[in-house]
User: What shape does this take?
Amino acid sequence: MNKRGVAHYTHNAAVMSTIGNDPNIALDFEMYRAKTNEDEKDEGEFTAALRLLNRVVHEHPSLIDIVVYDALACNLVFIKECQKLGIDAIVRVKKTNNISLKEVKRATNKTDSVLKFIEDGYVIEVYESFFYMNDMEEPIRYIKYAKEKKDSDETKRTQMLIITTCMDMKLETLYRIIKARWDIENKTFNNLKNNAHLSHCFIHGGNAVEGILYLLFIASNIFQLFKIRRLRNSNKNQKELARLLVKGMYTLKRRKEIIFNSA
Assistant: This one.
């Protein structure tokens, strides 16, 4: 699940994307619903994201096993919704007012690490606890990844906190999944904004905007699949590949022997 629902980029829509190895493609999106009167509030990302998740799971029951979200979804509502839909959740933890999360955070800081491994030059120590969020009947895993990397001049230290309903998944795998969530920002939506003009409002009107978004996502997904599956060894960037494709289509237009003649 995308960090910001792409509200910043996509005319107020929540977007679901794949993470991990290429290709990173947009799976579906849900438009924010406008308020109907002055007494209502504008719909936010979280509400639209829940509606998107419900719709995709019901329309494609076998598509999703795990949904990954940022700290916006670190709450009881999202966890319960995922459990109701029969999927697991992996969620970032940042500053929170949730009492149960504060308690497990303090308790975990006093425990010994349960695992140490090396990833991307970082030595990562893992601390793990299980807790009950508010009135939930089933426990949740709370995991802290303390990362340290020694350079020639300094030692870099950082940490990443998550909660998850994946009770049996390896700690290293959980780390790679939550780390790969940044692919949505760094690859998927960066590509859509810079190469597919997603930041530009081509047309106004609810249905028209939604139609344009579908066309943009479909075109981008097809291009990404073509690039990854057919041109994996190419060192050309996406803009250069697009230029060569346009040039090739123009060349084909001039070669009458390979153009279908409707006559």
The chain has two domains: 1-65+181-255, 71-176. The chain has a mean pLDDT of 81. The longest strand covers residues 140-150.
